[in-house]
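Budget justification note: compute hours in this period were largely spent on complex prediction jobs such as the one shown. Inputs:
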Amino acid sequence: MPVKIMATEQRITAFLEGEIDHHSAPEIRNEIDDAIQMYKPKVLKLDYSDVTFMDSSGVGLVMGRYRALTPFGGKIIVSNLSYSVYKIMKLAGIEKIAKISQREEK
Amino acid sequence: MNIINDFKLTIDSKSVNEGFSRCAVSAFATQLDPTIEEISDIKMAVSEAVTNCIVHAYPQSVGKIYIHCSILEKNTLKISIRDKGCGISNVKQAMEPLFTTLGGERAGLGFAVMESFTDRISVRSIINKGTTVTMYKKIRGRAIL
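Corresponding output:
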């Protein structure tokens, strides 16, 4: 499974894993949307610590979840981005709809 | 420019091949001694071009995607990705950031990513004949450090 989900009433944290592309995105999207519908969280945190690759399909994933959360006022936090994933998020202007942060250098 | 080395790869337009194609091109590029960031840029650009073929060129069917990758003089990588699909009616519009014909989960960033993460891109398309995307990227490797 490319995503592990930890949920409480207020907050869902989704730990994404491996490569996010047009092939893998639908499964990740379905898992997160099921959790959103169940918990209607105030905060959705997407943790990219274990993401090894992402293309613009991953940007679509964040934009789509933003739309899913908006009806009940939920916010998105996108954290632990690698430098290259951070670059593509910035290119898309994702910081306008979500709080984004890079990984700390090891 | 003289071709120093090249390879050709033909794949089915199935989404499972997105990972395979970007890894094949980036593995070929390793002989230019790229940095990790350059490898990542190449993978992203190839992934976007191949995904476009799968999603847009052959929307209802499985067709062939032709990848031709060359190493040119001056450490330049040339990547050509061609399909025989439906073609793009307005290339200029298709290349505008955030333009997408699909909406929903597609960000409309494919060409913007290809443009940002390579040095030069050209797109040739003929309706019902297909599209060729050609990208050039000079690999600077560790020389930039």
